[in-house]
Every structure is written in C-alpha cells, then in structure tokens.
Description:
Layout: H1 4-17, E1 19-24, E2 35-42, E3 47-53, E4 65-72, E5 79-90, H2 93-99, H3 104-113, E6 114-128, H4 136-149, E7 155-159
Antiparallel strand pairs: 1-2, 1-4, 2-3, 3-6, 4-5, 5-6, 6-7
Amino acid sequence: MLQANNLQFLKEKIQELHSALFFNTSNAVLKLPNSIVSVLKVDEAGQVWFFVNRPEQYLHEFDKEFPAKLDFFRKGKWFYLHVTGKAFIVSDPEELNEVVNVSDDVRRKAMSHLVLIKFKIINAEYYDYRIQSSGALQKAKSTVMKFLFGEKPSYRPYRLEPSY
C-alpha cells in the first residue's frame, strides 16, 4: 500500500486537475465508451468517484467491474497523471446516496442519465515538465539521459497495490 503522504499527494494532484479521459481497457464486446469525466471525490482508500453518461443499452448487460485507465491533464498545468486500475459500476441507489453529496435534483438526473463509477487506483504515473525548462545545460542532460537510459524527467510511479 502507498504511504499516506503519497496518497495525499495524488489526491491533491487529481483534485487540482479535476478532469480526465476515461478509457475502458477490458476486452469485453460491450463496454462503456471512452469519455471525459469530472472527479467528484477521491476517498481515503484511493478510489476516484465520477459519473459517465449512461449508455443506451441496459446497464445490467455490462461487466460490473473492469480494468480501466484515467488520463488527467489540464491546459496551463506543468504536470499530468496516468492512472490505471479497476472500475466498478455503482448501481445501488443507497450507495449513491451515501457516497455523493449532491442535491436531490442532481441525484435523480444521475440515476436516469448518468452512471456512477468507482475507480480503484492500482498504479499512478506522475509527469512534471517544469524540470525540462530550467536551462540549456539541464535540457542537454535530460536529452542524453532519455536517449541512453530511456528515463523521463521527473517521472514518479506510484503502486497502490502490492505486486504479486
């Protein structure tokens, strides 16, 4: 498991970027489409909560849990995140009421037009570009390191579950 300060760092960065591209990476024939999502919250268990548009097919025809990916970025920010993990479709109205602190009007709309997704973070990769722009010598060093060792500047991987 991640240390509390690493999870706190990821929570802050996710909240700062706030929106992401959601990708369903399963091999299922019927799967939720890729979409742009806005994060509702990130909880203490390392789960990201967000809504996606409800597909036209019946929701029970989809896998209730599947591998997925979130790519967080925002114009004007000097960093971005690639997060992989497992997504869960939350269809229980009671769980929706417990988790999401929204008005009744939004909750009704969510139950009819949207689907709540609980995304468990397994792996997060943080990229920071500020280091690249610090000068000609730093850029040359970065280019050589990238060429020789395949290193990415200020790349920090986070693993939220133990490797087996």
